[in-house]
Specification:
single chain; about 100 residues; mainly alpha; 2 domains; about 70% helix; rod-shaped
Amino acid sequence: MRRPFHRIRVAILALGAIGLGVVLGPRAAGLYGLAFPKDSEAAWDSKVGWRLCNGAIANWPDKPTPQCWKLAMCDNEGGLTEAERMRLKQMIAQNDCAD
């Protein structure tokens, strides 16, 4: 007699877990994207775009120099070390970014 009740309980819990995943999954993915943005145009334009500055500075000159507005954002908002700031100034000079 307990067997059918147990199976029903397991089925209800499984459906509840699936439903919870469907409801919370997209929100969790969005929050993950904000916390760890990819190096894309949309990520640079987000509230946490400044987090991409350190990687862009570290990858230069192996990767292309970011656009001037991105470099200006790094100069204004990025928490840079003195070495990163010197490297950023070189990137700005090479890219002919006027103040």
